[in-house]
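call fold(seq) -> tokens
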Amino acid sequence: MTRTRSVVPAESGINGERKPLTPEVEPILGSEGEGPGVESPTPVVTEPPSDGGPKWAQLERKEARLRADQVADLAALRRHVSARRRNRSEIITDNTLIRVAVDLLMAHAHRLRGDTEEDLRRSVLPRSKGQTASTEADPRRRSPGVPE
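ret:
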């Protein structure tokens, strides 16, 4: 069986003079001149849909950077919480737990003191009697009460 090549019509422009391809990038986030990691000086506040759409559509996006141990612990906690619950009408996600954590932080904002992330963490987290100096020195250590 012989293979035949398809013939491209001359008017297609493929074999003729073609303009060179030039890469074009459109802004992904925000307006012109802003890119990922650049926050707008005036945040855009939108009203949540009143039609009772999905919960995520009613929330504002805020990006955060987490340490690898926080990501792993958060996923483990989400699985643990999801496995224990009885009412499954609402999906529990990592973002759900992050929103709960922000609410908890806001509830204890009056205790927040310090100049560094470690100082701020120590000011709001409860200390356990068995907490050692090595645990205090390493902020990546698991906090008491977080399931394994």
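Confidence is low (pLDDT under 50) at residues 132-136.
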